[in-house]
Amino acid sequence: MSHPRKPAPAGAEHAPLELERFLPYRLSILSNTVSQAIANDYQRRYDLSMTEWRVMAVLARFHGLSAREVAERTAMDKVAVSRALARLVEAGRVHRETHGGDKRRSVLSLTEAGWIMHDDIAPMARAHEREVLAKLDTEEQQWLTRILDKLLGGQGA
Amino acid sequence: MSHPRKPAPAGAEHAPLELERFLPYRLSILSNTVSQAIANDYQRRYDLSMTEWRVMAVLARFHGLSAREVAERTAMDKVAVSRALARLVEAGRVHRETHGGDKRRSVLSLTEAGWIMHDDIAPMARAHEREVLAKLDTEEQQWLTRILDKLLGGQGA
DNA sequence: ATGTTATAGTTACAACTGCAACTAATTGCA
DNA sequence: TGCAATTAGTTGCAGTTGTAACTATAACAT
User: Fold this and answer.
1) A1 to chain B: which residues are within 8 Å by CB?
2) What pTM was computed for the model?
């Protein structure tokens, strides 16, 4: 309210972005749609955030990781991981002990309850992925994999 | 601390997700990386969130939209748009008036200052997009466009 | 005309996130 | 040794976001 400016006329000399053709925008929509669909599924069943699920997923694959290693593998920052772990440990889904030779480091693993959740959620997640890929034919799927490999370059793990 | 469960042994019967090959995860990393790179640029120059930039971008293209229409075109929810607009109007970047025939609706447009920002940011955003696409050859670029068209189906527009 | 339903937009609250500051343990090096 | 610099992880705070509830206006249907 404190800046009563007049609207400028829509001059032809401007070159507005066309969001619907703009790659970053389209990636963002697609990514959010897909991730949200999966998250809905497991949030209905369990009280579990996407961050927490990702932590569980890496702990299912790699055993005895430290919190920092989880952060590296999930591309999340260490604060997010720390908080996710606090909730997961509290809920009895992850077991945390201290590294023998280095008392700073934690040694993490899924509990029995964590594994049960994992074995329930992982197939659901894969089903969603298949559902997305089913919109593409085999050739397109191969190109997509290749393109993502190139775009993610080194960092995409 | 209140649930001292033992960790389960990493049995071979589990089928953990491989995040680094999991499409939703890879999309999420890529999308965040790209969008964040662009956002950094204009957040350094202006105090402007990604949400606000998207609102400005559609107002640059479509004149006299209402808040609801902005929400539709940006695929954001109306609350996010309402808050972005509050800040943009306050900062003198967007002009808001009330629709003649319907006092609920707003009629939005960029101010002169808004246009100047837009004309500064839009080329930067396009440059980032080109930078990403430069990692692909022409054939891959065409496939990517086609694949996104299919995956985004109706809604992505 | 008047009560019901729908729509545009805002507000309130709780959860989440990101950054910086902090503690604790370890390493390096003089 | 012992003190500075690193590293692992947590906490606090400020800003953001998402959901639901709310206000105001308009459309509809009797």
Assistant:
1) 89-90
2) 0.89
